[in-house]
Amino acid sequence: MPKPKPLYMETTVISPERTAGEITALLVSAGARQIAMEYGDGGKIVGMNFVLMVEKIPFPFKLPVRTKALHEIFRQRRENGSRWNDPKAAEKDAVKAERIAWRQLLRWVQAQLAMVDAGMVETREVFSPYLLDRTGRTLFEHLEETRYKALPAPEAV
What we know:
Layout: H1 16-29, E1 32-39, E2 45-54, E3 57-64, H2 68-79, H3 89-117, H4 123-127, H5 139-145
Antiparallel strand pairs: 1-2, 2-3
Helix pairs in contact: 1-3, 2-3
Protein backbone atom coordinates (compact mmCIF):
# COMPACT_ATOMS: atom_id res chain seq x y z
CA MET A 1 0.00 0.00 0.00
CA PRO A 2 1.43 3.44 -0.90
CA LYS A 3 2.38 5.76 1.92
CA PRO A 4 -0.30 8.43 2.50
CA LYS A 5 0.45 11.99 1.47
CA PRO A 6 1.61 13.92 4.54
CA LEU A 7 -0.60 16.71 5.81
CA TYR A 8 0.61 20.29 5.83
CA MET A 9 2.47 20.84 9.12
CA GLU A 10 2.07 17.15 10.05
CA THR A 11 5.53 16.82 11.55
CA THR A 12 5.14 19.70 14.01
CA VAL A 13 6.02 19.04 17.62
CA ILE A 14 5.05 22.53 18.78
CA SER A 15 2.31 22.62 21.40
CA PRO A 16 -1.06 24.25 20.74
CA GLU A 17 -0.42 26.62 23.64
CA ARG A 18 2.83 27.90 22.15
CA THR A 19 1.23 28.28 18.73
CA ALA A 20 -1.73 30.15 20.27
CA GLY A 21 0.80 32.53 21.81
CA GLU A 22 2.36 33.14 18.41
CA ILE A 23 -1.07 33.81 16.89
CA THR A 24 -1.83 36.19 19.75
CA ALA A 25 1.33 38.18 19.00
CA LEU A 26 0.36 38.40 15.31
CA LEU A 27 -3.17 39.55 16.10
CA VAL A 28 -1.87 42.20 18.49
CA SER A 29 0.48 43.47 15.79
CA ALA A 30 -2.53 43.61 13.44
CA GLY A 31 -4.41 45.83 15.88
CA ALA A 32 -6.40 43.39 18.02
CA ARG A 33 -7.58 45.08 21.20
CA GLN A 34 -8.82 42.07 23.13
CA ILE A 35 -7.86 38.41 22.81
CA ALA A 36 -9.37 35.50 24.74
CA MET A 37 -8.64 31.81 24.55
CA GLU A 38 -11.48 29.31 24.38
CA TYR A 39 -11.03 26.05 26.27
CA GLY A 40 -12.81 22.73 25.90
CA ASP A 41 -12.87 19.47 27.80
CA GLY A 42 -9.82 18.72 29.86
CA GLY A 43 -8.61 22.31 29.67
CA LYS A 44 -7.55 21.96 26.03
CA ILE A 45 -7.40 25.14 24.01
CA VAL A 46 -9.94 24.92 21.17
CA GLY A 47 -10.10 28.42 19.74
CA MET A 48 -9.59 32.09 20.30
CA ASN A 49 -11.69 35.22 20.14
CA PHE A 50 -10.42 38.70 19.44
CA VAL A 51 -11.66 42.22 18.85
CA LEU A 52 -10.51 44.47 16.03
CA MET A 53 -11.35 48.15 15.86
CA VAL A 54 -12.88 49.09 12.52
CA GLU A 55 -13.41 52.82 12.12
CA LYS A 56 -13.43 53.16 15.93
CA ILE A 57 -16.06 50.43 16.34
CA PRO A 58 -15.09 47.15 18.04
CA PHE A 59 -15.82 44.04 15.99
CA PRO A 60 -15.55 40.59 17.62
CA PHE A 61 -14.08 37.64 15.73
CA LYS A 62 -13.69 33.95 16.55
CA LEU A 63 -10.96 31.68 15.21
CA PRO A 64 -12.03 28.09 15.82
CA VAL A 65 -9.63 25.20 15.65
CA ARG A 66 -11.39 22.19 14.20
CA THR A 67 -9.63 18.87 14.56
CA LYS A 68 -12.42 16.46 13.58
CA ALA A 69 -11.26 16.09 9.96
CA LEU A 70 -7.70 15.41 11.07
CA HIS A 71 -8.93 12.76 13.53
CA GLU A 72 -10.77 11.07 10.68
CA ILE A 73 -7.68 11.03 8.46
CA PHE A 74 -5.63 9.45 11.24
CA ARG A 75 -8.38 6.93 12.01
CA GLN A 76 -8.45 5.85 8.35
CA ARG A 77 -4.67 5.55 8.34
CA ARG A 78 -4.83 3.34 11.42
CA GLU A 79 -7.46 1.09 9.83
CA ASN A 80 -5.22 0.67 6.81
CA GLY A 81 -2.00 0.23 8.74
CA SER A 82 -0.32 -1.62 11.52
CA ARG A 83 -1.32 0.78 14.32
CA TRP A 84 -4.98 -0.31 14.25
CA ASN A 85 -4.63 -2.43 17.41
CA ASP A 86 -2.52 0.06 19.38
CA PRO A 87 -4.77 1.11 22.30
CA LYS A 88 -2.99 4.45 22.67
CA ALA A 89 -3.03 5.33 18.96
CA ALA A 90 -6.31 7.24 19.08
CA GLU A 91 -5.11 9.32 22.02
CA LYS A 92 -1.79 10.06 20.31
CA ASP A 93 -3.64 10.99 17.13
CA ALA A 94 -5.85 13.44 19.05
CA VAL A 95 -2.81 15.21 20.46
CA LYS A 96 -1.16 15.27 17.03
CA ALA A 97 -4.34 16.61 15.39
CA GLU A 98 -4.43 19.50 17.86
CA ARG A 99 -0.80 20.41 17.17
CA ILE A 100 -1.32 20.29 13.40
CA ALA A 101 -4.58 22.25 13.45
CA TRP A 102 -3.08 25.05 15.54
CA ARG A 103 0.03 25.22 13.38
CA GLN A 104 -2.06 25.36 10.22
CA LEU A 105 -4.11 28.18 11.74
CA LEU A 106 -0.91 30.08 12.53
CA ARG A 107 0.28 29.76 8.94
CA TRP A 108 -3.13 30.88 7.67
CA VAL A 109 -3.06 33.98 9.91
CA GLN A 110 0.51 34.73 8.80
CA ALA A 111 -0.50 34.50 5.13
CA GLN A 112 -3.55 36.71 5.63
CA LEU A 113 -1.55 39.35 7.47
CA ALA A 114 1.17 39.25 4.81
CA MET A 115 -1.49 40.24 2.26
CA VAL A 116 -2.66 43.01 4.62
CA ASP A 117 0.93 44.26 4.94
CA ALA A 118 1.25 44.29 1.14
CA GLY A 119 -1.93 46.37 0.84
CA MET A 120 -3.72 43.63 -1.08
CA VAL A 121 -6.57 43.27 1.44
CA GLU A 122 -7.97 44.84 4.59
CA THR A 123 -7.60 43.07 7.94
CA ARG A 124 -11.37 43.00 8.47
CA GLU A 125 -11.79 41.61 4.95
CA VAL A 126 -9.76 38.45 5.54
CA PHE A 127 -11.24 37.80 8.97
CA SER A 128 -14.85 38.59 8.01
CA PRO A 129 -16.01 34.94 7.83
CA TYR A 130 -15.14 34.76 11.52
CA LEU A 131 -17.07 37.91 12.54
CA LEU A 132 -19.30 37.09 15.51
CA ASP A 133 -22.94 38.06 15.76
CA ARG A 134 -24.85 38.64 19.01
CA THR A 135 -25.68 34.94 19.31
CA GLY A 136 -22.04 33.85 19.11
CA ARG A 137 -22.28 32.53 15.55
CA THR A 138 -19.73 33.51 12.96
CA LEU A 139 -20.79 35.14 9.72
CA PHE A 140 -19.85 31.96 7.91
CA GLU A 141 -22.00 29.84 10.25
CA HIS A 142 -24.92 32.23 9.74
CA LEU A 143 -24.59 32.07 5.96
CA GLU A 144 -24.38 28.28 6.07
CA GLU A 145 -27.50 28.05 8.24
CA THR A 146 -29.49 30.36 5.97
CA ARG A 147 -28.11 28.74 2.83
CA TYR A 148 -26.60 32.10 1.85
CA LYS A 149 -30.01 33.79 1.61
CA ALA A 150 -28.45 37.04 2.83
CA LEU A 151 -26.55 37.30 -0.46
CA PRO A 152 -28.08 38.38 -3.74
CA ALA A 153 -28.54 35.62 -6.30
CA PRO A 154 -25.72 35.49 -8.86
CA GLU A 155 -26.52 36.76 -12.31
CA ALA A 156 -26.57 34.28 -15.14
CA VAL A 157 -23.47 34.40 -17.30
